[in-house]
Amino acid sequence: MILDHLVFWPSGGFVGVDVFFVISGFLITGILLREHEKTNHISFVGFYRRRIKRIVPAATVVLIATVAASSIVFNATRYWATLWDAVWAFLFSANWRFALQDTDYFQATTAVSPLQHYWSLSVEEQFYLVWPWLMLGVLFIASKRSRFNNRRAVTGILMGVIVVASFGWALWETATNPSLAYFSTFTRAWELGIGALVAIASPWWGKIPQALRPVLGWVGLIGIIASLFVINDGLPFPAPWALLPVLMTALVIVGGTGGQQRFLWPLTNRGTTWVGDISYSLYLWHFPLIVIIGTLMEPSPLFYGLTVVLMLGLAAASYYLIEAPIHKSPLWDAYRSRSSRERAWKDWRLRWKNTYKIGGLSVLIAATLLVVVPALIFDPSTPDDASAPAYTYVPPTSTAGAQPVSALAALEREISTGRLASEWPANLSPTMDEAMAQGSEGNPALGCFAPGTMPDISACTFGNPAAPTRAFLVGDSTAMSYAPAFIELAETSGDQIAVTTIGLYGCPFVELELKNTGAGVAESCPERKAEVAAAIAAAAPQLVFVTNVIGNAVAADGSKVAMSDMVDATVGWSGRFANDATRTVYFPGPPVGKELTACYGPLSSPADCMTDVSREYKEYESLMEAKLATGGGVFVGSTQLACSRSGECPAFAGTLPMRYDQRHLTADYARHIAPAMREMLVDEGLLAAIPAA
User: Fold this and answer.
1) 616, 597, 62: which is closest to 289 by C-alpha?
2) 385: number of Cβ within 10 Å
3) Which candidate, 446, 410, 483, places its Cα nearest to that of 668?
4) Cβ proximity of 422 and 388 under 8 Å
5) pLDDT digits over 631-678, tens only?
6) Cβ distance 546 to 586 under 8 Å?
7) Under DSSP, is residue 4 helix (H, G, I), strand (E, B) or coil?
8) Nearest alpha-carbon partner for 183 in 89, 249, 119, 275
């Protein structure tokens, strides 16, 4: 799992969590059963006290350290998100936070939370808030008329029902809402339940012939390893594919229950045992380190080496200085007298005194390295021009008698200056943090792209409705982010242009059914596309601009859609309103930029957020031009609205941030590019040369 997070290999590394669930269910259920067998009851106070001592201290330290590091490394938007992630994680409800945010574990489109891995701890603790009580109830009822083994059988029947119900729910949820299915306690309970069933049936596993145990253990171990490579993010998960690692883990446990385990030497040698000892702390630390250091450094041998060293160092320190001492401390233990409690604490202090002396300094050094070393060695890359000055923007001017500087030329200069900037300018307005926080809220067409009922056409029409030139801008959220530019174009046209901006965010206007998990989008998309096409056909405008997201399209069945198919489907949808009076203009959003919440921060430079025109954009451009070579519409590229002639795309131009995420223009920048966009459309012969108002 750590390898998967660090180097994205093996493809199924994420199944480590499923292995962990089975082991946890086995261990905890076994402890509860043995306690009931010995005392005829289960002490819930004792159980939850042990859970808190075992889980909370190290988890809390990592939460505090991660939030502290985030305040130094991350921008304000990402820092506050991380802080709230920490609050939810501390309350063991992180899985529901990520589920409610529609987090896609496999295809993250925004900056990943350094605390995302806490979801599995939340699932586990939520399970143990319920399962011990159910166990006690069943065991109490069964104890009135059954021997203990029969009580186990009754408990097993209860857990079997839970496992079947949870797995059935997981199958349905994975097919209909995979993001929720990944994080939901209800779709994961069956995995912990399988481990519980293995514990419940442990008396029967002791009867397995010794000769058969190595076979079971090795088959299970090989099955777990195979699942790391067989399973990938394209398969439905957690159901049914989590069955493979879950059942194989159960097989390993069965093979090692009630007999010698020396045959499983890969799991029982001293090195593996030590990693097992620190595994909880290692799990806690690994993901924040990968995310935070990854924000400061590009992947390199230094990045991997530093991350692994800190990972192991902090995990070992947490285990020896936090986990083990607190878990084995007299804290909350019951004693018959005050003197016995004091003696227990005295013995505890003597036992751990030297450990804290030696380890205290080590922890301080390691924690400091977590933030300081990456910052010291991180050398922000700069443009090839080593003499590039700190950012100062000077608007283009015209000398007396010379031709006025065109809007496109002025925009090109702003983009070029942003490309060469070596530091974030102080006069950005709004600031990068403000742009990210505002998002699409400042977009006047926001309601015209919302799911639900079809928006009123007149409310989404800007400019003089009686203008001689009528245009529509339609598509998904990419079109919505262009809307302020088109609105500005209409309102500064001297009553010559009216523009209707309408569509549905998350719904590309194509002749395909695509996958979308946004609230209400999947249900509204087919109808909205039909209604907009009908509105265009009825209005018969001179121009229709179609703008959709480029790349990463996934069909409703989960398969990836080829770019050529997206181009065909885009042109195909436009056929719904095709007529001789209407020209269709395929006008893509600017090339995708870097995710600002990931690349922008107090320790970053503008170069960290600069991108090149993507391969997907170039492919789309080429395929669309070829598709339209024989007619059917016009393609107008948009690279010059956000990128330099050399194909480099900065995060800001002039004094304006371009985007508030990877794909969507800020409302201010969209309005700013309206004059340049007008010149582009005039050059293409799509608009008459109308002077700006």
Assistant:
1) 62
2) 10
3) 483
4) yes
5) 889 999 999 999 999 999 999 999 999 999 998 999 999 999 999 999
6) yes
7) helix
8) 119
